[in-house]
Amino acid sequence: MDILLSILGLVGFVLLTAGTGLFVAVEFSTTSLERSTIEDDIAARGDAASKMVKRAHSDLSFMLSGSQLGITVTTLATGYLAEPILARFFTPALELVGLGASASTSVALILSLIIATILSMVFGELVPKNLAIANPLQVARLLTRPVWIFNTVFHRFIQLMNNTANVIVRRFGIEPADELASARSPQELSALVRHSTGAEGFDQSKVRILDRSLKFGDASAEDFMTPRSTVDTLETTDTALDLIREAHESGHSRFPVVNGDLDETIGVVHVKDALTIPAADRASTPVRDLARRVPTVPTSLGGDAVLNLVRSAGSQLVLVVDEYGGTAGIVSIEDVVEEILGEVWDEHDDRTDSEVQRSGQFWDLSGLVRCDELEDACGYAAPDGPYETLGGLVMSTLGRIPSEGDRVMLPRSERDLVERVTDGNPVRWEATVVSMDSRRIDRVQLRPVPDTHVVDADGDRDE
Fold first, then answer.
1. What is this structure's pTM?
2. Domain CBS spans what residues (predicted)?
């Protein structure tokens, strides 16, 4: 009779451990599932199992509370049942090796507790957890229904516990949720894309494009416009022949037509407009007669809205206006494409004017490179400040309009200062003004230098 009871006890131990694993697997599988995955499964199969998974995921708080109750009950029952059963097998073996009756009983209970805990943890928690995380949909489809039945039986008790927990959570100023939020912010999606590089994920080029696309909606017209100081324009008195010459010299096809400066823009012309005019009349046809109306947008307008306006504008070009009503620059379809894809070249572009060029430990950059692009371009993380571009950062650090050949140590970001303390990174970045375009910094050379060699603009060593 004792042998039969021992065998039944062992069977009960195995079943209770499996029960713990059942609740653990359902808990991890339901929390690992995305709503989109469940919807796709319903669309593909539409069977009872997929509908049950959706129902459980929609009432996640109740489902998890029931799983926690099941895990607690089965774990306690496993310990209560396993310890004396296993001790009954260990006691005779310990007595055979010379332990007394009382000592062997105590040691057997300790051994049974350790073994029961290990077996319950490995087979009741860790194994089902790993299976659920690796295959959440398959596990949820297979095991959700029995747990839902258990929850239905103990519905009132689970609801009481859940309501009690919700009251406590609300005391902390947090509103409980019955369903996991499946929506992701652009920042979260961008992080997911970056972490999907390699193995069976995306390659670097796809990651770069997806990351730029996700960030594009957060950018504004000011971020990717061509600033007014670099815009090639035509005067209203210029002719169609002047338009052809300017297109040949600059490599551009579209030009704003202005009455003095960009603040008085009357429209935009395309070089093809001049080519439609008979050659004999081009020198006498003013470009103001060819100009088309050009839309205007504020500097703060978001990237998606700017893209829609540029696409819908017949000129594929819009003027960007600052808060004071002045023209800050222009946005063309090429500016939008380059914001997403990176620098785009055609047969008329001069590659020596590339925004970023590297030669050994030196980086030659355009002064118009945005500060938020510097880390990807060369590794320098610029701190926040009253500037948008590398040229603005250099001017702000110098405290004046620079001259060609000026050198200055660029400031560190707060993150760099933290990393310097934790990693002992002694590197600083030195900027040298290579060329100026009137009062605008045209090209800047950056190079990393050891902190021991750092000398500030005023000649003092920076320790």
1. 0.54
2. 225-284, 290-347
